[in-house]
Write a structure and sequence with these properties.
CATH class of the largest domain: Alpha Beta
CATH architecture of the largest domain: 3-Layer(aba) Sandwich
Order of helices and strands: HEEEHHEHEHHEHEHEHEEHHEEHEEEH
CATH topology of the largest domain: Aspartate Aminotransferase, domain 2
Structural class: alpha/beta
Number of domains: 2
CATH superfamily of the largest domain: Type I PLP-dependent aspartate aminotransferase-like (Major domain)
Radius of gyration: 22 Å
Largest sheet: 7 strands, mixed
Number of helices: 13
Number of strands: 15
Shape: globular
Distance between the termini: 30 Å
Length: 428
Amino acid sequence: MSDPGRCDASEDWALGADAADPLGRFRAEFCMPQHEGRDIAYFCGNSLGLQPRATRKAVTDELDYWAELAVEGHFRGRLPWMDYHEFVRDDLAAIVGARPIEVVAMNSLSVNLHLLMVSFYRPGAGRAAILIEKSAFPSDRYAVEAQLRFHGQDPGESLIELAPDEADGTLSEAAILAAIEKHGSRIALVLLPGVQYLTGQALDLATITKAAHAQGCVVGFDLAHAVGNIDLHLHDSGCDFAVWCSYKYLNSGPGAVAGAFVHERHARTTRPRFAGWWGHEKTTRFEMGPEFRPTPGADGWQLSNPPILALAPLRISLEVFRRAGFDALREKSRAVTGYLEWLIRERVADVLDIVTPTEPARRGCQLSLRVKGPRESGRELFEHLQRDGIVVDWREPDIIRAAPTPLYNRHVDCRRLIESVARWRSAR
């Protein structure tokens, strides 16, 4: 949280803080939707990031290569399609704290989760359970339950759901570690989020991995709300695999190509996998042989050739991250989210409770908010904000999520959000 002694609720203070922001110039690189003749206040990058202005040209360039070169576009042009997924590899590895061999951009998150569970969820006698959090994002729970049933397991017995133990519905580290210790001997896979989608709580990947590995469990993470948001250090964490989408903080567009991480120690694993042509080693792929020889590293889990028109926006967004510098983005994220938290406590504490942990190390930029009073009051405030040109999102049963993302959000946006909440309170 920002130092209260350095914060001010005035517009002049917020404008001054934004004028001094060394990353402020990046806002102009994004398309900003309008509301009644002015920029909206967009706090929904945790659901869909804004479009970088350079994305349109990147996509039309590939369309032009297709028109001009046809099949030769695979081998000619500035970025030949045969190697296109490799052009995002280094930047993607930097974002997630991995080695280039450990990451690949492919498919969608749920598809990648299934593909990696094929390899890393291997139930055996006495060890068949999967541990998830009780409020897991539905697609994760669906995938886990489907994998359990596919392997002949009863989810009623083999699905362990970790219930929140803290007052705001968050999970203490002690509770996570206690569950791993209690059930570890029968857990085949620990699958937890990097940032919990509903509460905005960030988990300590390295601590969880160390505890789970000590019990003989495999560890995977869903980083949908973590990638591009918090420091991840995936390689150093030691986790076995991770998956993520790139349409949230990575600003790659609706339904954008997702990503996966497989730790380098599994680069040449003999674990079973679903095989596809593009996962075959690159040097002999076009020999068209009958034997599948996987490319070492995460690339070996690819099935099909990469979707060029979907990868182009990801390439552009990752270039923006590289120029901004992730350490600088995290510093700004902590400051702006801290300012929003301070404003809530100073100005509208009688209206809003903050669900997300207050410690910066336990959250990213998202604050999950609960309106004091009945659920209907929460919906009323959410709809009021939408009418006021302030874009947040609603998650059942009663959570408003607001995420000031550092590439394009400002202190004045946070102030505008709180002023709107105060107007709603006064009008009731």
